[in-house]
Amino acid sequence: QVQLQESGPGLVKPSQTLSLTCTVSGDSITTSLYTWSWIRQPPGKGLEWMGVIVNDVSTYYSPSLKSRTSISRDTSKNQFSLQLNSVTPEDTAVYYCTNRVYWGQGTQVTVSS
Question: Is the pLDDT of residue 57 over 90?
Answer without folding.
Answer: no
